[in-house]
Amino acid sequence: MVYELKYRDADIFLKITIAVVIALVAGFPPIIVYSALGVSMAVVAVFADSVALGAVALVPLGLFSYPHLVPPVFAAAGVIVFAMEKRQGYFIKTSIMAGAIFAGFILFGWVSGGDSNPGLAVTALMSLAAGATVALGDYMPLKGQWRMPAKTVIAALAIYGAWQFRASNIIFAENWLIGLALSGSLAFMALMARRIDLAGAFGGVVAGVVSYVTLGTGGFVILAAFVIFSEIATYVSRNRAEKPFDFKRDEPDGRGLYNVAANMGPAMLFALVALFCDDPFVFTVGFCASLGGALADTVSGELGRVYGGKTVDIHTLAPARPGANGAISMVGVEVGIASALLIGGGAVLLKITSIGGAVAIFAGALAGNLADSFLGSILENKGLLTNSQVNFWAMLSAGLVGAYIALML
Fold first, then answer.
1. Which residues of the chain have pLDDT under 70?
2. Rounded distance between C-alpha atoms, residue 49 and residue 311, angstroms
3. CA gap 334, 247 in Å, rounded
4. CA–CA distance, 302 with 299 (Å, rounded to integer)
5. For residue 293, what pLDDT is reported?
6. 182-212 burial code (b ≥16 CB/10 A, e <16)
7. Please, where are the H alpha helices in 27-115?
8. What is the CB-side half-sphere exposure of residue 48 using CA atoms within 13 A?
9. How far is residue 367 CA from its own chain's centroid?
10. SS3 of 311, please?
11. Which end of the chain is more exposed for a tag (fewer CB within 10 A), N or C?
């Protein structure tokens, strides 16, 4: 037992040492060196039959427009590849990651003259917040090497978000009242129509208030569009299905708080980050992409159930029952694409994003819809995830993909 403790202590010390060395190296080269290094590592990794590792090398280059953020992201990527293991505790993961990010920030600031760093205390808080967020990414239901690029994308967005954070970005109080009135009215109507239970109505009110306070009328309209079109698709599906709708079978988690949190929760996370950012563009795209993915998933599932025709499992391509976990159809794919276009185009018309942002929203929404199908086929069918958990991770993936693409624009 004593030997095991000593071995674990030495192992933790080694991981911390690796993280510090990576951060030290990350702080010095100019941005052009990182570009050459990232592309070279990606090419080598692909030829070595490790596409995932190549993706890790390229992810930090998405912040090319923010040279002072590339070193800490490279440091975080190095820790993810070489120094982070699942058996480490959350505190250890956070400490190692935050230390590497902090060193990348500080060293690059010293080398470049220090203009990019807001001071040691603020940089330490930024690094701790980003490190804690990346450590949470270790709980994603992904296996194998693809966990690494996914966590690196989270690191890039977390570092960018921490750098953008301004606690002084306060919203006027009347926005809370307007958001509460609008979302409360919609939730009350849904409750009276028995489309949702009391806990779900409360969750919907919270989501409505958050979207209105953070992104104004445009954000609330995007949220309302998701709710309204999802309900229309569900109504059509239930009234045209040959097989009567079975609530326990087709909606095992119900239309309650868990369902609301799974479908809207990721979007609310992006909205809250956007609230405190000086430039909320990236996280506004994440908000819209997450809801776009949720709408695409709902509409493709509901309409594909009754109009889809031939249905196959997305993972095995074997014939599947319409509406089954992981089942896709041509009609479902088409209406899913249309739903993603609707949210992306709506965001442009509402002037909460640009044409480039709409492209990122569209791509993120499609990625989230595909992620939902794959997770349903691979993990939900095996009982490893519930339907709500699949929805949450898929919509979070939609937001992450959309936000990262926006970060590269």
1. 1-51, 83-88, 108-119, 142-144, 167-175, 193-195, 240-255, 308
2. 32
3. 26
4. 5
5. 93
6. bbbebbeebbeeebbbebbbbbbbbbbbbbb
7. 31-47, 51-58, 70-82, 90-112
8. 11
9. 11
10. strand
11. N
Domain ranges of the chain: 2-164, 173-408
pLDDT attached to residue 343: 94
- Return the pLDDT at 193: 66
**What is the identity of the amino acid at 398?**
A
Report pTM: 0.81
Give the model's pLDDT for residue 12. 57
Confidence (pLDDT) at 363? 94
CA 305 – CA 70 distance, rounded (Å): 45
First to last CA, the chain: 53
**Among 383, 379, 405, residue whose Cα is nearest residue 394:** 379
Write the DSSP symbol of residue 376.
I
User: 181 near 94, Cβ under 8 Å?
Assistant: no
H or E segment and range at residue 335: helix 330-349
Q: Which residues of 88-126 are buried (b: 16+ CB within 10 A; e: fewer)?
A: beeebbbbbbbbbbbbbbbbbbeebeeebbeeeeebbbb
Question: Which residue in 103, 126, 85, 93 sits closest to 276, CA to CA?
Answer: 126
pLDDT of residue 247: 47
User: Residue 298 has which token pair?
Assistant: 């709902």
Q: How many CB atoms lie within 10 A of CB 142?
A: 19
Which residue, 163, 164, 99, 159, is CA-closest to 134?
159
Contacts of 46 (CB under 8 A, 6+ apart): 54
Phi, psi of 278 (to 5 degrees): -65, -40
Cα→Cα distances 185→194, 229, 258, Å:
14, 17, 21
Q: What is the pLDDT of residue 167?
A: 66
CA angle 358, 177, 220 (to 5 degrees): 15
How far apart (Å, rounded) are the C-alpha atoms in residues 315 and 369?
14
